[in-house]
Amino acid sequence: MDNIKDSPRKIDQRLVSHGVNNHIQKIPIEKLIAHPGNPNRMSSGTFARLVRNIERTGRYEPIVVRAKADGFEIINGHHRVKALRQLGFVTADCLIWDVDDHEADILLATLNRLAGTDELDKKLSLLRRLSERTKAGELARLLPLSARQIERLNNLKLPKAPANIKRTSFLIPLSFFVNDTQYETIRRAMSLATDNQKKKTKAQRNAVALTRIAEWFTKNFDNQ
Question: Distances from the Cα of 39 to the Cαs of 36, 109, 150, in angstroms?
Answer without folding.
Answer: 9, 8, 30
